[in-house]
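Troubleshooting log. The previous structure file for this entry was overwritten by mistake, so regenerating from the original sequence record. Sequence copied from the archived sheet and checked twice against the printout by T.R.
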Amino acid sequence: MRKHPYIIAILVATLLSVIVWLCVPKEYSAITKVSDEYKEVDLAIGMNSMTASIKEAMGGANTGLNDIETYHKLLKTEDFARHIAHVQVPGRHQTYGEYIATEDTIETNQDHIVYNYSEKQGTLIISFTDHNPLVASQMLDSVTVHLQDLVTDYRHKIAEAALENAKKEMTVAEQEYRVDT
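Regenerated output below.
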């Protein structure tokens, strides 16, 4: 054995790696990438990235929830995590909060939702981790759907407010026109 100490080292290393592998809990992550739709549209219609950047600098930039930078802030709110805790886990007949069965469900949900925002590329990478890969992918789908619903509802409210404002302006203009004639 003194002539071949590397055999003992290989066996010990293999045994230690198997022990560590068995002790570490397995976590799976489902990942999706969200990009800035306005910038993508600008590039798709033929604007080069410099022109799109100039448009952005001149005030054509997205604001509020239309800006992808705010999406990751929504992902870490307690309301968002609370909503995810009440989502039914498909095939399990229980909510995700019941599925993870911890004292602090909100904080655990926030820990499972991981994001990475790239300002340079204008993309947001969202991942959801869980011990079950099927649950991770289904919950990631729920996260993206809820994020999309929040953004859509916000845009709908903005459009409704703009419509109401336009109707009021039209009524005022019509009344002024009748008074003047």
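Residues 133-180 form the longest helix (48 residues). Archived copy saved in two places this time.
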